[in-house]
Design goal:
Layout (H helix, E strand, L loop, with lengths): L2 H32 L14 H17 L5 H24 L5 H29 L6 H20 L4 H39 L1
Helix pairs in contact: 1-2, 1-3, 1-4, 1-5, 1-6, 3-4, 4-6
């Protein structure tokens, strides 16, 4: 696979891991199996039926957990310790055929990309959970599922598009996340003021 193709799969898989790790891994594994893709580096490990099976099972668990207000935020908090390292590992694995320094750089950048998408997702979900109706939560979760599966499905065939999408998404998260955190802090302050005034 070309360098651009490898870069797209490395960036795409690390970015998707911050949104929905299990959907991304399952999609990549199934593409490798059924589309006969020669995945770069050591990424072929995700084509193992064991890896695909576990990823699909965990995706099914996340599919339901992610659509329940507040449960999704707990799930995201726990997955801070899973999604970000997994994004780093997937990026480094994609560059498995390159020298060790390149793999280390891929590991570091992959972790950073996963952190940006996970941070944006978690912060957005906390903000959405302040809205009383449950429809927004479900719509956000379904959108994330589509983005995760769609990005992984596109990466091998439209690598430049995926690289551009990931780059724009990282920039957007750097702009949006601080604003969401600021909004959430204002909500917490309002709740504290209401409680203290009673």
């Amino acid at each position: 696979m070309s360098f651009i193709g490898t870069l797209a799969l490395a960036m795409g898989s690390s970015w998707v891991s911050g949104i929905n790790l299990y959907a991304g891994v399952a999609t990549l594994g199934l593409l490798g199996r059924f589309a006969h893709l020669n995945l770069p580096g050591d990424l072929n490990v995700v084509t193992s039926w064991w890896v695909i099976g576990v990823a699909i099972f965990l995706y099914c668990v996340e599919f339901f957990a992610d659509k329940i207000p507040y449960v999704d935020s707990v799930w995201d908090a726990i997955h801070t310790f899973i999604r970000i390292p997994a994004g780093a590992v997937l990026a480094a694995t994609a560059f498995g055929d390159f020298d060790k320094p390149v793999q280390v750089v891929a590991f570091l950048l992959g972790g950073g990309i996963a952190l940006s998408s996970h941070g944006a997702k978690a912060a957005t979900r906390v903000a959405i959970n302040t809205i009383p109706e449950p429809v927004s939560n479900t719509a956000a979760s379904l959108s994330e599922d589509v983005v995760a599966i769609g990005s992984m499905a596109l990466a091998p065939f439209f690598p430049v598009l995926v690289i551009v999408i990931v780059a724009l998404a990282v920039i957007a998260s750097l702009i949006i996340v601080p604003r969401i955190i600021k909004y959430f802090r204002s909500v917490v302050m309002r709740v504290r003021n209401l409680v203290s005034s009673e």
